[in-house]
Amino acid sequence: MDSFWWYALGSVVVGYGLLMVRGGVLSARVRAERKGFTLEAFKKELENRNYEPAAIEAAFSDFIRSRGHPVFPSDALERTLGFLPEEFDDMLEDRARLFGVQDVQNSSYASLFPLNSVQDYVHFLSEVVRGERKKSAS
What we know:
By secondary structure, the protein is mainly alpha-helical. The protein folds into 2 domains: 1-35; 37-137.
């Protein structure tokens, strides 16, 4: 291999390393900002918005499990929390199945996509809970 390819490979490795360090620093900052933010505080930020309590609790739990720290309703899924689209889709699909929706992408709830924030996710789950409750009552 000539020196150009070694230089190019070295640049890629250094760039990747810098991205990993940046991601770690951002993650540590986000964790520190949310230290002590509880489910009760999360609920309080969402009060008066007519969201289903089960949806609020499920969303908070999903993000704690996925990210390892609490989230704010205003957090952007990709920009603030660092979700990759596939990673978030997996979390959403798993939760939708638990609420009774087997194929969320082809359900009536898909009209609520795209979801860009934590609050969007809570809203989505609230609609699923309400819709599935109506179906089971019929």
